[in-house]
Structure formats: structure tokens, C-alpha cells
Automatic annotation (TrEMBL):
The keyword Iron does not apply. CDD domains: YbaK_deacylase (cd00002). NCBIfam families: YbaK_EbsC. It comes from the Bacteria. This is Cys-tRNA(Pro)/Cys-tRNA(Cys) deacylase. Pfam families: tRNA_edit. GO terms for biological process: translation. Residues 35-149 form the YbaK/aminoacyl-tRNA synthetase-associated domain. Belongs to the prolyl-tRNA editing family. YbaK/EbsC subfamily.
Amino acid sequence: MSQKFPVTQAIRALRAAGVEWTDHLYDYEEHGGSAVAAASLGVDEHCVIKTLIMQDENRKPLIVLMHGDREVSTRSLARQAGVKHIEPCTPETANKHSGYLVGGTSPFGTRHPMPVYMEASIAGLPKIFINGGKRGYQVCLAPADVIRLLKPTLVDAAQA
């Protein structure tokens, strides 16, 4: 019996762009984050990329892509983005901006276009796992495809 993979806005966006990816389902755990995804899929958490919805001091939303095993230095990110302050959105606000539920947020096919900031070292990985637009669903693809589709600003914002 074959598994049925979800068709989300993210998948529609990837298909429309002609991107190749593989589907990976796992048992979602509330507040489990990238560690649970990595353990479930048997991959290094460094290759599981978090999609975070944040906002600047004017409440303008933005997407941050970060390694699963790293945290974002919002101070460093704000400096590189040319704003005074960046903070995470509340889950409700993040859901509103992205069109996805927190824990299932994909950077592809978001409800509203937002600037994307990606940790520069992600670009050097051969393959990454990133949310496919549903809790418990990751897609594996090349970072070059993420860069081609999202045109992110590459930053060095991982906390030391």
C-alpha cells in the first residue's frame, strides 16, 4: 500500500516551479520541532531547516530559514536586514501571514509574499529537509532550488 502525500500550497508552488523533491512523512509532536523531525527521518538536525515567521519593529512580517540545531540571533538579523528590531510573531499572527499552522509552516506558497532571510551556510548543504506545508511533512530538495524560488537574502544570523 502506498502512502498518500498531502498536496499543500507549498507543493503546488514547487510543482509550478518545476522543482524536484522527495516527500517525507513523520509523526508530528507538539513542540517537538526540528529535533523530532530529524530523529524520525534519521537525518542530521543541521539539515532540517526551520521556517520561522518574524516581524520587525513596524510589524512587517518576514521569513527566516535557519538550521534546525541553531537559534536565530534577532539582533544580528535586524542589523543585516537594516531594521531596528526583529522578534518572532505570535503563533496566531504567524498563521495569518503564512497561511500555515505553526509547526507546519513552509516558506513556499505563503498566503502573503514576505522577504526571506536564509542562514548563508544552508546554501552549502547538498540537500535540505524543509516543511512541506503540513505538520509532520517534510520535503527534501536542493538548497539551490530554495534560492532560485525564494530569492532569499543570505545572512549570518545563527547564535554562537
